[in-house]
Amino acid sequence: MTRTFHTWTPDSIPDQSGRLAVVTGANSGIGQVTAEALARRGAHVVLACRSPQRGQAALDRLLARAPGARAEVRLLDLGDLASVRAFADGWDHDRLDLLVNNAGVAMVPFARTADGFESQFGINHLGTFALTGLMLPHLLASPDPRVVTVSSEGQRFARFDLDNLNAERRYGAMFAYLQSKRANLYFATELQRRADAAGLMLRSTAVAPGLTRTNVLTGGANGNRGRIHGALTRLLLRVAFRPTPEGAKTSLYAATVPDLPGGAYVVPGGPLQLRGEPVLRSREPAIRDTTTARRLWELSETLTGVRFRLSDDAGYAAEQSY
Length: 322
Fold this sequence. Notes:
Elements: E1 2-4, E2 20-24, H1 29-40, E3 44-49, H2 52-65, E4 70-75, H3 81-89, E5 98-101, H4 119-139, E6 146-150, H5 173-197, E7 203-207, H6 227-240, H7 244-247, H8 249-256, E8 265-268, E9 278-281, H9 285-288, H10 290-304, E10 306-311, E11 315-320
């Protein structure tokens, strides 16, 4: 099923007053636009950023553009599970209404995270998995909790190999990136299935932004690839990719549309999901592949030490093992 929303714009976002949101990777790109739009509509937004300096700069920009907005910055490095646990342990609000899993890396040279995982799998999927699990008790204290996980239109081309998720046998930057983005979609849909089975009100959705101008291809580890690579990449971004606010539309739609169903996958409605207005797409193979999603979930629990538990009296909770 595909539904098109031709008239939806960020101006259509309903009042977000009273909502408490976390946006990971909110210091630049789609994350920054998402955080600012939510704050403008009244949400209290936590910018979860790896760099304190870039996070503070993003917060300063947000407050300059939206005077009176409620926002704060907190340290979070998805490439370090100790940082993920510290973020969750330090949560001092009474609940969390919205978690936007936006942060990630793309097509970077081979590297390992602080915990020894291949960096794209470790940051894009495992860090996101652990953060969501550890923040679930706070989400479930909300009357209407949502989790939005940013995947990619490129996940459709992934050759998902459960035996090579961590670059055990070989590494290709594009292969690893697409695989990690497919993992994001598996995770979002499996989280919804488990929430439904537990009778929880949690809504988990995934989004694809389309071709969007951000620094994910030029910053971070990609910033060390030399002048020629940087110049060519920036030229490609200007010519073929759309402005960042356009790419943030699917995230904002998934985060704020009142009647959006849990388990939705929101993508651009144009050819190959590269551009266009938000639509709901239900025919992706990853959405129907429950076997792989379940196996990935179990593997992710083992690798991160964050185990999601269901019980009649406690609902959804996350336990840590060290």
